[in-house]
Amino acid sequence: MDSYRTEEEQVEAIKKFFKEYGTKVLLAVVVAAGAFFGIKSYQHNERSDREAASTYYNRMVEIVPAQGAVSDEDQPVFDAAYAALLKDFSDTTYASYAAFFKARMDVTDGNLDEAEKTLRWVVEQQVNDELVGLANLRLAKVLAANEKAEDALALVKQPQGGFASSYAETEGDILVQLGKNEEALTAYEKAEALRDGRESMTSRLLTMKIDSLKEGQQDKLHAFGASSEEAEADKNAE
Question: SS3 sequence, the chain?
């Protein structure tokens, strides 16, 4: 504006600028404001979804007693909360953990087909790599328990989600089930080598499996126990 000699010329220049570009400037302001408030709205909705999903998940967990059986009175509440999570919040971690919870109850009840269906649902959602890896690991155990050992073995050949040690250990469990003890020992030793070094009850169980196979006492193996990595994943859901 310093190039203009008078204040009147400056005013005229401003008027001319807004006459030529005012609509474009206004449009740019509107678009920028819309984007800002759109982001704020998305963040608010995302937070609301997480809170609602958390409420449904906690409702499921709270009505299940220590023995793991839902009472007839609470069953409709449990089913409604679970259905809401799967229908409206399938892309949240709460829905996946609710499915893990449901699958575990199905296994306890001996309903392995339903547990398989539930775990496959988690895999299909692809919420994140860790949940997919954990779902496939547990699916392999369910398949093996349901006399589908070869299908289970195919799953654990491809470790996912940071559960390499658990996949190798589960592979060993399945190989024991198939009577392939030498291969099972190799898988167990691989699992031990992949451990992070932390001592736990499950890590000691793996050592017992290795020792039992070396001593030819595979009948003492406690197959399909939760690995330390699985236990850690379950802890994160709490």
Answer: CCCCCCHHHHHHHHHHHHHHHHHHHHHHHHHHHHHHHHHHHHHHHHHHHHHHHHHHHHHHHHCCCCCCCCCCCCHHHHHHHHHHHHHHCCCCHHHHHHHHHHHHHHHHCCCHHHHHHHHHHHHHHCCCHHHHHHHHHHHHHHHHHCCCHHHHHHHHCCCCCCCHHHHHHHHHHHHHHCCCHHHHHHHHHHHHHHCCCCCCHHHHHHHHHHHHHHCCCHHHCCCCCCCHHHHHHHHHHC
> CA 119 to CA 115: how far, in whole Å?
6
Q: pLDDT at position 100, please?
A: 95
Superfamily of 90-238 according to CATH: Tetratricopeptide repeat domain (1.25.40.10)
Instruction: Give residues with Cβ within 8 angstroms of 78, minimum separation 6.
Output: 59, 60, 63, 64, 70
The answer to whether the CB of 229 falls within 8 A of the CB of 167 is no
Q: Any idea which of 34-38, 95-99, 194-198, 205-209 has the lowest mean pLDDT?
A: 34-38
- Flag whether pLDDT at 86 surpasses 50: yes
* Tokens read off for 6: 């008078």
CA pair distance 19, 168, nearest whole angstrom: 72
Compute the residue count for the chain.
238
Q: Where are the domains of the chain?
A: 1-79, 90-238
d(CA 216, CA 143): 26
